[in-house]
Design brief:
Elements (H helix, E strand, L loop, with lengths): L1 H5 L6 E4 L21 E3 L25 E3 L8 E3 L3 E4 L7 E6 L6 E7 L6 E6 L4 E5 L5 E12 L2 E12 L22 H9 L6 H15 L1 E2 L1 H6 L8 H7 L1 E2 L1 H14 L4 E8 L2 E10 L3 E3 L4 E2 L4 E2 L3 H6 L13 E6 L1
Parallel strand pairs: 2-3, 12-13
Antiparallel strand pairs: 1-15, 4-5, 5-6, 6-9, 7-8, 7-10, 10-11, 14-15, 14-19, 15-16, 17-18
Protein name: Transglutaminase-like domain-containing protein
Organism: [Clostridium] leptum DSM 753
InterPro entries: Papain-like_cys_pep_sf, Transglutaminase-like
């Protein structure tokens, strides 16, 4: 077991969050060529982590990516003339939201009622449908849409509730969403298959994807200095330009892991007093690895891939996980 663990090499993703965008804003949390993946839209057959398939040799895992495609069948919709919120697939952990108005500044807020302090805030664009997760699990969610009046003042355009009972607690973290957007045609999907071709298990697949990201993506300091609040990553642009900011690193890695059937959370929270993002993964037979993922031969530790890629040190952010506090899951 230890031998397998050592191969994982620096798997934990904690990334610096800078001012002016999701990585360091003081207000809202973050708003926002052919692949070879298998597209799955029927949620009744959603693949979950499992051992080698019958076609695979023992000690191997199937590298073929599986892309879950969100749908909006319209069988259960809430909203009004301003917004349509399709919650038909709430049991699979997501909803599709379409804003019909023409206000250029619109906020979607999702509150998980059992935890009154946790409110997710997103930007909506007129005429565009986006996917959002019910990422806190079973329970009641309050959903509001607010339109800008002027400055920082907003008026409520819609308010409603949705009761969620998930078929599987892992499924939401296999789907794409507004922050981690991909399709079966995304270049990153096909690249994930190449990277994990020789992986014997999910740990080795995670290591291969992690090592690729930190070894090939350079930190874009110019972009970090100019990025605006509400920025959404483009995983294929990151892959092609070979550079990005912390949000780009996290989104690219999360997308690659999800299409490899590894449930993955992009987590936002605090490391000490710093606003950070990191990744949690689910391993079959182990469960969620939320705090520590890299095994150094003695202990599991964290590592920041942004620091690793830029040549910086990460010792300040490596520890037993006690100073990390989760706030949001995407």
């Amino acid at each position: 077991m230890k031998k397998r663990m050592k191969k994982t090499a620096a798997l934990w993703l904690t990334v610096f969050l800078f001012s002016a965008f999701f990585c360091g804003c003081q207000g809202d949390p973050p708003p926002g060529n052919a692949g070879s993946g298998e597209s799955v839209s029927d949620s009744s057959s959603v693949p979950v982590p499992s051992g080698p398939s019958q076609e695979q040799e023992p000690g191997q895992r199937d590298p073929k990516p599986v892309v879950l495609t969100p749908t909006a069948p319209g069988t259960e919709v809430i909203g009004n003339e301003a917004v349509s919120i399709d919650v038909s697939n709430k049991a699979d952990g997501y909803m599709t939201v379409t804003y019909h108005g023409d206000n250029p500044k619109v906020k979607l807020q999702i509150k998980y009622v059992p935890d009154e302090e946790t409110v997710y805030t997103y930007n909506l664009q007129a005429g565009q449908s986006d996917v959002f997760l019910f990422s806190r699990g079973d329970g009641e969610y309050q959903i509001t849409v607010n339109e800008n009046i002027e400055g920082n003042r907003y008026s409520q355009a819609f308010a409603g509730t949705c009761q969620v009972a998930l078929k599987d607690q892992l499924t939401p973290f296999l789907y794409p969403n507004q922050y981690v957007k991909f399709t079966e045609d995304s270049q990153a999907v096909g690249e994930s298959q190449k990277l994990v071709q020789s992986a014997g298990d999910d740990l080795e697949a995670i290591a291969a994807i992690y090592n690729y990201v930190i070894g090939n993506i350079q930190y874009d300091f110019d972009k970090a200095a100019s990025v605006q609040s509400g920025y959404l990553p483009d995983i294929d642009e990151t892959l092609n330009t070979k550079k990005g900011i912390c949000f780009d690193y996290a989104a690219l890695m999360t997308a690659m892991l999800r299409v490899q059937r590894i449930p993955t959370k992009l987590v936002v929270g605090y490391a000490g007093e710093l606003y950070h993002a990191w990744i949690s993964v689910y391993l079959d037979g182990v469960g969620w690895i939320d705090n520590i993922i890299y095994f150094d031969g003695k202990d599991w530790v964290r590592m920041d891939p942004t620091f690793a890629a830029s040549g910086g040190g990460a010792s300040e952010y490596v520890g037993d996980g006690s100073n990390y506090h989760d706030l949001y899951y995407y």
